[in-house]
Design goal:
2 domains, 4 helices
Length: 197
């Protein structure tokens, strides 16, 4: 429990000191010395009391400032704690969003890898079929015979018709074979033109 401070009454001490000093001058011997010592002691105690009172007021002001500073620090601390909590929440949201984006990226990457593997497999099959067709054309070229130009033109028209039919049905292999056959006839007709020119 804090001690309460009672301020000293003004000028009572100086009146008391004056009285004691006058009495000491009137009384001789030991009693006069005691009165003088009492006056000095009262004066010292009064000065110490004034100093203590000033110190108490200074400490009161300092305590008041400390309380204000503590309250300001608590307010700032609460604000910082709220900011840290908000940043933690924001960071958690960002981590979750990044994880979701990573999962979507991994899924898309897996899908594209699967499509790429399918495409490579399909290219391999088409390359094999093309080699087969080339071998077929090469063997066909080895067994060529002379045909009238009108027959070649008629055959070319038939290959064009077959190519269109295969294309509509989505039969890529037959369409390619028909185009190769048509191309072979075009080459034969071009060679015939260059021979006659």
């Amino acid at each position: 429990m804090p001690a309460s401070v009672v301020p000293l009454p003004p000028n009572n001490a100086s009146e008391t000191l004056d009285f004691l000093r006058r009495m000491a001058s009137m009384v001789s011997g030991r009693n006069g010395d005691v009165l003088l010592r009492a006056a000095v002691l009262i004066e010292t105690l009064a000065q110490r009391a004034k100093s203590a009172e000033r110190l108490f007021h200074q400490q009161q002001e300092e305590n008041k400032r400390n309380v204000e500073l503590r309250e300001a620090a608590e307010f700032s601390s609460d604000a910082m704690v709220q900011q840290v909590d908000a940043l933690r929440t924001q960071l958690a949201d960002m981590i979750m969003a990044a994880a979701a984006e990573r999962a979507a990226f991994d899924a898309e990457r897996s899908k594209l890898l699967h499509l790429m593997q399918d495409a490579e497999s399909h290219i391999g099959k088409l390359t094999s079929e093309l080699e087969t067709l080339r071998a077929s054309v090469d063997s066909f070229n080895e067994t060529m015979v002379s045909v009238p130009v009108e027959t070649l033109r008629l055959a070319r028209a038939q290959f064009a018709s077959l190519t269109g039919g295969f294309a509509r049905r989505g039969d890529v292999i037959s369409e390619a074979m028909s185009e190769i056959g048509g191309f072979a006839i075009d080459q034969a007709l071009a060679a015939k033109k260059s021979d006659t020119a």
